[in-house]
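User: I'm writing a tutorial on reading structure tokens. Could you give me a worked example: one chain, its sequence, then its tokens, then a sentence or two explaining what the tokens reveal?
Assistant: Sure. Here is the example chain.
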Amino acid sequence: MINPDRFLADLHHLRSFGAAGVGNGVIRPAFSAPDIAARHWLAQRMQDAGLQAHIDPAGNVFGLAEEKSLLMGSHSDSQPTGGWLDGALGVIAALEIARAAQEQGGPPVSAVSFQDEEGRFGTCTGSMVWAGAMPLHEADTVTDRDGISFAQARAAMQGKADTFIAPDRFSGFVELHIEQGPTLDAAGEQIGVVTDIVGIRQNHITFEGQQNHAGTTPMAARRDAFQAVSAFNTLLNDRLRNIVTPQTVWTIGHVSLTPNAPSIVPGKAVFSMQWRDGDLDRLDRMEEVINDVATQIASDFGMAMTNVPRPAMVPVAMDKTLRTALENGAIAIAPGRWRTMPSGALHDATNVSSVLPAAMLFVPSINGISHAFEEDTHEADLIAGLQVLDHAVQALGARL
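And here are its predicted structure tokens:
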């Protein structure tokens, strides 16, 4: 039988690795000292639970049941300044479900904490490598913002890494996660059963104009790279109006100006352009518009322009059998207080779905806040999520 008190105690203890800031803040980026310490602690907790602890070359931590099993989990790394539940909830819930199965001889369950979901070196790096979407030697060449490569970072765990676990050891994958948005909390609901995970595209666009004196260069004579970014944003919003839906999102999230000085007209701007939607055709049409707008703005402002796409993630529908089991669990545990919903955030389940049937479950985020020290969820909702997982596992039984 699952033990909610033990589950919450482990969840709070995991927060102690990298605890920071007010409330329940955490600073535990991938391969940082707190992250590595947390992974070693997780491996020991898995071992104590009767699972075989296994850390693979990418830093993914598995707790393996002896036979073919359902895999559950998420990630335990955090944003540079993040909250205590993002990813960690799914890992500790998986540990508790697997531990209860070991104690009572229930359907076999294995647990996992994937590495670098939060993107220090890319997008869900650990699950991407494990699922075969990116070879390890290719991931090793990716660098973070400080120029440290994935190879250099993972070297900190050398001597602890074993071989990769084959996906065919598992029958499916289920990931519990906080919603990271306001929908469930605003509606007073406890559970969201995920229907699909949106696709994500991202480009890095550069406008190069002319660096010049901010006091003596007439406005009409300027080739201001930041003004080009501003015009790009305005025109893009107008051009996308008839393509997008209320669920579609797009973001300029990172802008770097050169030379980034108060008295100099910026001659160069590099920025990220990211867009998300659950429909592949809409993602394609948005990409065409984004590329056309970038080309037009460069021409209008007399700029040189480069537009470099980053690795993309396709939309993923959740497995029907696993999703139905979660829906039945939600009916039993939170009658009238659950819904089906898409995930606008990317998760490891996207990568895992390429090699295993996958499903996801959400619990509310208070005030819709995530990726911040204020991130939190009521304990009753955390426990409800755990109970829905347990109900689903018991119902699936031998089919796992």
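What the tokens reveal: The CA atoms of residues 177 and 362 lie 5 Å apart. The two ends are 18 Å apart (CA to CA).
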